[in-house]
Amino acid sequence: MAHHTDSDREPAGELAIRTLAMPADTNPAGDIFGGWVLAQMDVAGGIIARGVAKGRVATVAVDGMTFHLPVFVGDVVCCYGAVTRVGRTSMAIHVETWALRGGGGERVLVTEGVFTYVAIGDDRRPRIIDGASD
Ligand SMILES: CC(C)(COP(=O)(O)OP(=O)(O)OC[C@H]1O[C@@H](n2cnc3c(N)ncnc32)[C@H](O)[C@@H]1OP(=O)(O)O)[C@@H](O)C(=O)NCCC(=O)NCCS
Questions:
Q1: Domain count, the chain
Q2: pTM higher than 0.70 for the full model?
Q3: What is the pLDDT of residues 10-45, one digit of tens each?
Q4: Residue nearest to atom 4 of ligand 1 (CA)
Q5: Ligand 1: which residue has its CA nearest to atom 28?
Q6: Is the model's pLDDT at 63 over the cut of 90?
Q7: 60 alpha carbon to ligand 1 midpoint, in Å?
Q8: Range of the domain at 94
Q9: Gap from CA of 64 to ligand 1 centroid (Å)
Q10: pLDDT value at residue 8
Q11: Do 75 and 18 contact (CB within 8 A), yes or no?
Q12: Which residues line ligand 1 (CB under 6 A)?
C-alpha cells in the first residue's frame, strides 16, 4: 500500500468540503468508517457537479474508489474535486480526501475515486448539460 505525504503530491482540484471526523463516525474498531468518508466525497463531488450542471444531479457511478490510509477521530477531513470529463448529460469528477492528522501539521492522502454524476430534470431523467462538448 502506498503511503502519501506532503512530499509526494499536492491536493488536486478545488476544496469542496472541510469537516472534522467525529467519534459518531467510527467503525467498531474505533477508526473512521469508510462509508462516512465515501459519503463526504460524494457530497463534495456533488457540489462541484451541481455547479457544472447548473442544477440537480444524481450520482450514477463511483470508480476506482481507493482507501489508502485510515482516518482517525480528530482528523480534519478535506475533500478536493476536479472535473475530468463533461459528456452530454454526465460528468466525471476525480475526488481526493486529505486528512490533517489531529488538526496539526501532517497532511496525508487517505482516499480517492472517480465519481460520475448525471444532470437530471424534475422528472429525474437525464438532462443535457449546457455547453457540453459531446
Ligand atoms: C442517473 C440516471 C437518471 C441515469 O439514467 P439512465 O437511464 O442510466 O441514463 P443514460 O443511460 O441515458 O445515461 C446518462 C449518462 O450517464 C452515463 N452513465 C450511465 N451509467 C454510467 C456508469 N455506470 N458509469 C459512468 N457513466 C454512466 C451515460 O454514459 C450517459 O452519459 P452522457 O450523456 O454524458 O453520454 C439513473 O441511472 C438513476 O436515476 N440512477 C439513480 C441515481 C441515484 O439515485 N443516485 C443516488 C444513489 S442512492
A1: 1
A2: yes
A3: 999 999 999 999 999 999 999 999 999 999 999 999
A4: 126
A5: 90
A6: yes
A7: 5
A8: 14-119
A9: 17
A10: 72
A11: no
A12: 58-61, 87-90, 116, 118, 120, 124, 126
Nearest CA to ligand 1 atom 36: 60
Asked whether the beta carbons of 115 and 59 are under 8 A apart, the reply is: yes
Residue 1 lies in a domain: no
Residue type, 61: A
CATH of the domain at 22: 3.10.129.10
In a domain, 112, yes or no: yes
Task: Give how far Cα 37 sits from Cα of 7, 32, 72, 113, 129, Å.
Answer: 23, 8, 11, 11, 28
Within its chain, how far is the Cα of 90 from the centroid? 16
If pLDDT is split at 50, 70 and 90, which confidence band does 103 have?
low
CA torsion angle 31 99 36 73 (round to 10): 40
Which residue, judged by its Cα, is nearest atom 12 of ligand 1? Answer: 126
